[in-house]
Amino acid sequence: MKKTPMRIDETQLDEKDTQEASNFMVKSITKMVEEKKHSIKSGIKKSILLFGLFFSIILVSMLYSFITNISAMFATSPIIGSLYLILVLLFIALLGYIFYGEYRDFKKIKEIDNLQKEAQELIKNPSAKTKSFFKKLSGEYLKHPDEEIANAAKRYHEEIDTLLEGEIAKRFEERVLDKLDNLAREKISKYSTQTALSTAISPVAFIDALLIISRSHMMITEIAKVYGYKPHFAGRLALYKRVFGILAFASVTDILANHSHDLLGNSFLSKLSAHSAQGVANGILVARVGLSTIKACRPIKYKKSGEGFLKNITATITKKLFGRA
Questions:
Q1: Smallest Cα–Cα separation from 284: which of 306, 261, 299?
Q2: Mean pLDDT, to the nearest integer, of 39-51?
Q3: Is the pLDDT of residue 267 over 50?
Q4: Which domain covers residue 311, as residue numbers?
Q5: pLDDT digit string, tens, across residues 149-165
Q6: Crossing angle of the two packed helices 178-201 and 274-297, in degrees rounded to 10
Q7: What is the mean pLDDT of the segment spanning 279-283?
Q8: Helices (H), strands (E): how many in the chain?
Q9: N or C, which end of the chain has less CB nearby within 10 Å?
Q10: pLDDT tens across 30-44, in order?
């Protein structure tokens, strides 16, 4: 009996190849993102240690120099020694003022956890304290640089006395926080797209790292300002710690897996290059840093997963890189 040759459906082969390519790209991009995350976190830790060592050396040197000079001046001329001492004390007072501002910013960032916990407790169990808590919270945004947000906070601040205890938190989310979140997401979209496009054409890994760090730094600062924080050095370090602590628990794998098949078609793969894939990975990484910053700065815990937002950003990046959404 003559056997009939098997026919292989070319469409099935194409789908199989695309799926395999999709899985390969998920693994590749995931690996690149995780490597970037590890590299950035290691760099920040080393920078903090080096700065601490450098600052300690300078402080000891200044103290030794001060004691030597003041002793010599008082021995030569008490008047000159007194003037020098006054100048030094004024300088110390100025430093104290600066350090106080740093401490205040640092403390404000560190208290976000307590603020989120208190808000969460009042949302679950509304009480007489709910009104005063959210009235004080909305007052933080009455002078927001964005006029729309400032007006929304003002309207909420005026109507809070007419709301029931169970409505106060929900209305604050709708009237104020949603607008803050939208503005923060605009910042994320801007900087993640810039990073992806810049690193996609960059031929040097070191330049890629500088671009990622600089864009992430500017984005974190701008998002913090959206939520009412203007951290200086110490506050910024505390904020970075919170952001990357949250980021450490996030994995890009699940997000890529959810939509990589939609993005990785045959025409996409035909245009793909190593630098372009790196650009996509870098853009996703910066976007995840941005979402972590929202979670780190938001006065009420951010419960949205962010997967849909990241999918839209990835689609925007690939469209600009390859002309395909």
A1: 306
A2: 70
A3: no
A4: 31-47+114-125+178-322
A5: 999 999 998 888 888 88
A6: 160
A7: 83
A8: 13, 0
A9: N
A10: 666 666 666 666 666
Runs of H (alpha helix) within 77-127:
78-110, 112-124
Domain presence at residue 54:
no
Residues 6+ apart with CB under 8 A from 95: none
Mean pLDDT, range 244-259, rounded to an integer = 54
Average pLDDT of the segment spanning 62-70 = 78
* Burial grade of 282 (CB within 10 A; 0-12, 13-18, 19 or more): buried
262, two tokens: 């939609």
Q: What is the mean pLDDT of the chain?
A: 77
Element (H, E) at 319: helix 307-322
Q: Does 195 have pLDDT greater than 50?
A: yes
CA dist 74 and 80 (Å) reads 7
d(CA 236, CA 197): 27
Let me know if residue 183 belongs to a domain: yes
**Single-letter residue type at 72:** A
Q: At what angle do helices 78-110 and 10-76 cross, to 10 degrees?
A: 160
Residue partners of 192: CB distance under 8 A and separation at least 6? 215, 283, 284, 286, 287, 290, 313, 317
Residue 118 forms part of a structural domain: yes
Q: What is the mean pLDDT of residues 81-105?
A: 81
The rounded Cα 174 to chain-centroid distance in angstroms is: 23
